[in-house]
Amino acid sequence: MASPFTTDPPSFGNADVIVPGWPRDRPAYDSLAAAVQGECSRWNVPGIAVGILRGAEIETTSAGFANLATRQPMTDDTIFQIGSISKVFTATLAMMLVEDGLLDLDEPVVTYVPDLPLADAAARTTITLRHLLSHTAGFEGDRFISYGQGDDALARAIAGFDTLRQWTVPGDLWSYCNAGYYLVSRAIEVVAGQPFETVFRKRLVEPLGLETTFFFAEDVITRPHAVGHYLKRREEGHVMAHGYAFPRHVNGTGGVVASVREVLRFARLHIGDGEIDGARLLSPESAQATREPLTEAGDFSRNYGLGWCVHDYPDFRTISHGGATRGFRANLTAIPERAFAIATLTNGEAGSRAIQEIEAWALSQYLDVARPVPDRVKRSGKQLKEVAGTYRRHDGTFTVSVVDDRLDLEVVHIDEESGEVEDEQSYPLVAVGKYRYQVPDGPNKHAIVDFIEYGGNGPRQHFLRMGGRLAERLDAPSKGATAKGKTPKASGKGKKK
């Protein structure tokens, strides 16, 4: 469940680093349908469904296939795994319980989950729901080991949190944390006295009138649904992503399955500041608090609030979240000040690039808005060598080397249960800041890599951050190799009194 894309591509002219075999220039489409059909074909995505909300009007369109094996056509009502867009749903539900007085954003989470084990005793007593919802709790966030499908799945998952590494002091640094949302989900079911999915359906799904929004595969299979597809190399074609169902404890983090229409209906709740069709589910203050920037979030000009990624333009603010699961890529972007939202759901790995291009076209076409573009920054050979080295985390090794006037990043992904190599990937990196680099082309275009020097309460550490995840440098870096200090702490903006 990777972090969402962020910006439109920089223009590097003759200095571009080109990944062979991938298309570069977006055609000038004259309609949403043309844009979706064109980008589905251009990026070789099995299927795409897109919805745009403008005021009270909804426009939807789709292209391609929901399942390449059965040749089932994609439709506007096909349901998809939406991945980490689920986190915004869960954050919204948490805010409802805050309004009920059952939760408090700034109360230590052990108040609600007293049997919580964490490796760091100090962090255990200081981590709050605000930290968890804004990805600043500081502990390792990726654990997808199954704890079964029973009602005790979340409790069993949390019982193993003492083996999660505490990377940073809570509140210091943004680091994408799926496991943090496991803990939010557990707190919700503890204070509500019901399984998380039951609370989710009663408090959010049913009041919103969402008829095809599910968690469980047995519900999904009765509806027209998409299946995910992998595409490692364009010339080899797609492979179906098998193993559709998630471990149950993942549901509040990335387990929602929904249609593009119902994702847009959820967006309407936030565009309406907690009110939809005359029914108020959340106070305006709480709805607005979810989209207040609390921490710098790694990607270019992007912050994070309570569940939402936040980007400020001169005249308005966008709130968004992406999602990535087995062969699915998705994104939701809303602009409350313009009563506008776009949801794009795809069932192929290359869908992330198609999403970027479709959204960029739509923002230009409907709002005359272009996303900001980071300029390329020149870095000397010496400066490039300062960050070159080997970085490691529990599920991968990241090797950074200097190639001409840029960096190359080799990533080896490791299965966290078996310890075996899952796959290897290579990315060119060009500098867009002093310690910030970007993938300039190909299917992972716009991915950001930060190099960070962090002190916390102990010796200084050197991190690589990609997709929001931290990896620690193994070899000693040169002096001044990474950005010093801490990223801004959660500011407390939007704090519920």
Structure commentary:
With 497 residues, this protein is α+β, with helices and mostly antiparallel strands. The chain folds into two domains: 1-375, DD-peptidase/beta-lactamase superfamily (Beta-lactamase); 381-473, Lipocalin (Beta Barrel). The protein is built from 13 helices and 23 strands. It has helices at residues 32-42, 86-99, 121-126, 129-133, 153-158, 178-192, 196-208, 217-220, 251-254, 260-271, 284-290, 351-367, 381-387, and strands spanning 47-54, 57-67, 72-73, 79-81, 229-230, 239-240, 257-259, 275-276, 279-280, 295-296, 303-304, 309-312, 317-325, 328-335, 340-346, 389-393, 396-403, 406-414, 421-431, 436-438, 448-454, 461-466, 469-473. The strands form five sheets. It has a nine-stranded antiparallel sheet with strand order 3-2-1-15-14-13-12-11-10, sandwiched between helices. It has an eight-stranded antiparallel barrel with strand order 16-17-18-19-20-21-22-23. Strand 5 and strand 6 form a beta hairpin. The longest helix has 17 residues, at 351-367. It starts with 31 loop residues before the first helix and ends in a 24-residue tail after the last strand.
